[in-house]
Amino acid sequence: MRLTPLISTAVALSVAVPIFAQEWVEFASREDRFTCLFPTQPTVKETTYLSQHEANLPARVYSAAQGQSRYSVTVVDYNQAQRILTEKAKSCPAGAEPCLGGPGDEGHWRADIRGAMDWATWQLIKGDVKVTSFVWAAVDQVEGRQLQITNNADHSRTFLGIFMHQNKLYITEGTVPRGYPEPALFQQSLGWLDENGIGLRYQSYYNNNYPTPPRVDRALRPGQGRIDAPGAVVPRKQEGGK
After folding, report:
1. CA angle, residues 130, 174, 154, in degrees to nearest 5
2. 95 falls in which pLDDT band (50, 70, 90)?
3. pLDDT > 70 in the chain, percent
4. Cα–Cα nearest to 190, from 20, 111, 73
5. For the chain, what are the domain ranges?
6. How high is the pLDDT of residue 191?
7. Cβ distance 112 to 52 under 8 Å?
8. Euclidean distance between CA atoms 157 and 55, whole angstroms
């Protein structure tokens, strides 16, 4: 990935709660609206991410380690792409269409958002790695993809998830040394939060490029959804409700 670290390390609006005997934690970021299991409380680093059309987008990397295994969730805010690329297009040379874009798509900000998962995938597989799995995936109905790659130098394996939700790009990476079990607990734990910190699931498949489908009503189906952020008030089924 093309990430540019900043000097400071930020602590986002998030909470981690210990679970299980091995002390993995349920981590919930209200700011980036996701949940995930980490082996320890993750560190949070502010950074920037260079998109396909060269917008330096704000991003955060949530990371933790357990022995030689490494786990991270990178969240890139593509909500800023329109503003950044529209402003950038103002300084493009006359006739430079790849830079200028077109009316309503200045700097190709729309293409930047639509192609975000493809761009992220290419950044992750173009190095000295072997792709051993590449499949479609969905997390609580949010569409994305999952990959497995092997580093040709040290033979470590990385299990990747790439998703786009509400114009934010989410990249999960679990890397284990050669011969270690796959990081299934981490890989399968990604979830979403709504604006109130409540675990979010959709009634049908969500694709970031199309209208948002209805959400599952947690008051009627309380078992739906993953982790709720601590302090979130989950709606309850009313007396006599169906």
Report:
1. 45
2. confident
3. 86
4. 73
5. 3-200
6. 96
7. yes
8. 30
Report the residue count for the chain.
Answer: 242
Distance CA 160, CA 181 (A): 15
Amino acid at position 116, single letter:
A
Q: Is 213 left (phi over 0), alpha (psi -120 to 50) or beta?
A: beta
Please tell me the pTM assigned to this model. 0.88
Nearest residue to 138 (alpha-carbon basis) of 223, 184, 205, 183: 205
Q: Indicate the CATH number for domain 3-200.
A: 3.40.1000.10
